[in-house]
Amino acid sequence: MLVNTSVLGVFFYYMDTKDTKVSANRQKKVEIVASLSDKFNKAKAVVFTNYEGLTHKQIEALKKAIKPLEGEFVVAKNSLVTRSLDEKKLKLEDDHALEGPTGTLFIYNDIVAPLKALAKTIKELNLPSVKFGIMDKAFIGSEQVLKLSTLPTREVLLAQLVGGLKSPIVNLHRALNWNLQKLVLTLNAVASAKPAPKAPAPEPEEPQEAAPAETTQEEKPAEPTQTEEKLIEDPKGGEN
Q1: Cβ distance 65 to 114 under 8 Å?
Q2: Closest by alpha carbon to 47, among 125, 153, 122?
Q3: Architecture of the CATH domain 9-151
Q4: In the chain, domain spans
Q5: What residues contact residue 69 under an 8 Å CB cut-off, 6+ apart?
Q6: Residues 120-134 pLDDT 10s
Q7: pLDDT tens across 167-176, in order?
Q8: What percent of the chain has pLDDT over 90?
């Protein structure tokens, strides 16, 4: 039996090409799973969505909105996502949890900011729908994910914290200023209402002792009169 060598050549060429394509696809899948596993390891939270109905342009716009917020929106086959979850030892409670096309939101820093961007797209387009999320290795439902998107962002919380720390100092500064102003106003009011000081009363002079009268001549005793002399000589008054 003769075999056409040209036919055999085409057959072996086809088989070799097929094996090459299978190997390339397998390698690509391995790389995708490794990339997803790395993203799961870095992420603080993960949200799984169904992007069915979104156009390629809308998906790219969502990716662009999330990227500056330290997040990433990745589209991958459910089988590859499941394999990545298995490597993280995260077992899905429901085998149909990833049913339908899946777009995965990886959040690497502030959890709320990327969720707000996702919630904004959902509000505008009514898509994508949230399937579930994972936070701290715990599964959370779609309602909990959307509730988280309503919380203040990290920047807002920090600003509120700084404002709260500054407000007592500002209030103290204002209180001190007001008290000083009040003191100055009070002192001014007291000064304007205070009567002029009276002149001190003169101190009473101490009484001075009268100086003794000066005598120019010594006082001489009065000389007796003639009658007094006669009486002295004749005390009986001339009686016989």
Answers
A1: no
A2: 122
A3: 2-Layer Sandwich (3.30)
A4: 9-151, 152-185
A5: 109, 110, 113, 114, 117
A6: 999 999 999 999 999
A7: 566 566 566 6
A8: 45
